[in-house]
Amino acid sequence: MGALNYPGVGGTEQGTAPDGFDRVLEEARLGSGLAVYRRVAEGILAWELQRRAGLRVSADSPTAVPGARVVSGFGVGPLRLNAPCEVVWVHEPMPDGVPQSAGFGYGTLPGHPARGEESFEVEINSQGEVRLRIRAFSRPANWFYAAGGMVTRAAQRLVTGRYIEGARRLAQEGSAQ
User: Fold this and answer.
1) Which residues of 162-176 are buried (b: 16+ CB within 10 A; e: fewer)?
2) What is the pLDDT of residues 9-47, one digit of tens each?
3) By the 8 A CB rule, do 92 and 102 touch?
């Protein structure tokens, strides 16, 4: 699959991005309490946001760990677009205490339609409020994807919205609804 193919590796962990890359920052309130936080954290680290967004996930590890490689597939049959990535950072949930956060960031590998990084992080603040944060920076990997700029950005917004909905479903599971 090759090596990470963009500058600023790990930038989503600090919220930074290289010059010339489009940025995404989406946040959503998911509920409150450690049980909600833990459900979402476990789901994020087990690739559940990708699956719940409708992506086909093939990973060399059942959970996100540094160096794990994952290919997410979007579409069907010959129209499936595969997006290979490598996990570049991970925050595991702590056994107790607030505030804290958990999640991971992964970066693109050759064959991905973009170059850049995306992260998925859930946090619980000192008041027990649970929020999801998705950060990304990217630019098209080649002229073909650059030519479809508006379509590419619309697809990214669609998948990001699906990630948020997946996190909301995870937050609600196991609770009285």
Assistant:
1) bbbebbbbbbeeeee
2) 999 999 999 999 989 999 999 999 999 999 999 999 999
3) yes
Q: Where are the domains of the chain?
A: 24-172
Fold category of 24-172 in CATH: Alpha-D-Glucose-1,6-Bisphosphate; Chain A, domain 4 (3.30.530)
> Omega of the bond prior to 84 within 30 degrees of 0, cis?
no
What is residue 15's DSSP assignment? T
Question: pTM for the full model?
Answer: 0.88
pLDDT tens-place string over residues 135-149? 999 887 654 555 455
Q: How far apart are CA 34 and CA 2, in angstroms?
A: 39
Dist CA 150 CA 98 (whole Å): 40
In the block, which residue shows the tokens 């619309």? 154
**Could you tell me if 119 and 14 are in contact, meaning their C-beta atoms sit under 8 angstroms apart?**
no
Helix, strand, coil tally for the chain in percent (to 5): 30, 35, 35
- Give the Å distances, CA to CA, from 110 to 3, 42, 107, 118, 155: 7, 28, 10, 15, 20
**Residue 134: φ, ψ to 5°:** -115, 125
Is 48 strand, coil or helix? helix
